[in-house]
Amino acid sequence: MDDKSLDFFKSLFSFTPSISILNLNSGTNKITESLNDFVAPYDGTITSLNTEVLKELRAKVKRSNYDYAVIHNTILNIDDKNLLMKILTAGIRDSGYIIILETKEKPLDDIYNLLEEFDYGAVSSIDIFKNYNLIMA
Q: d(Cα 15, Cα 38) in Å, to the nearest integer?
């Protein structure tokens, strides 16, 4: 991921004092590091959780606590996608956003269908990363 792509990624967020981002992944990576750098000047918080154990995730995600949920490289690998979406939906505020990053070889239709099933409107795909699709809802 180059700096230009990360700058555009950063522009997707409305940085306000005390911004709160739920970061779901299968391990620390450049996105996690970038999110931490993004929120530092705003006294924001990043809650980074591994998505491999959904029961633990359910216990750790606080209800209506997050402005954004960023999920990378995991949503299509989860066996119980419906449970993951229920956890995310409960975790983000009413005006919150979900940002999904998946490798380009994964089918976007599966993600769109999952978001539609949970009544997420205004779903858009943004091509900013060479190896990842970015979907925002």
A: 8
Adjacency order of strands within the sheet including 132-136: 45-50, 20-25, 66-72, 92-103, 132-136, 124-126
Confidence of residue 28 (pLDDT cuts 50, 70, 90): low
State the average pLDDT for the chain: 87
Closest by CA to 90, choosing from 118, 116, 112, 111, is: 118
Give the whole-angstrom CA distance, residue 114 versus residue 84: 10
- Residue 27, SS3 per DSSP: coil
- pLDDT, tens digit (0-9, with 9 covering 90-100), for 60-94: 888 888 999 999 877 888 888 889 899 888 899 87
- What burial class does residue 7 get, using C-beta atoms within 10 Å of its C-beta: 0-12 exposed, 13-18 middle, 19+ buried? exposed
- Distances in Å between the Cα of 106 and the Cα atoms of 41, 77, 79, 93, 103 are 34, 10, 15, 28, 6
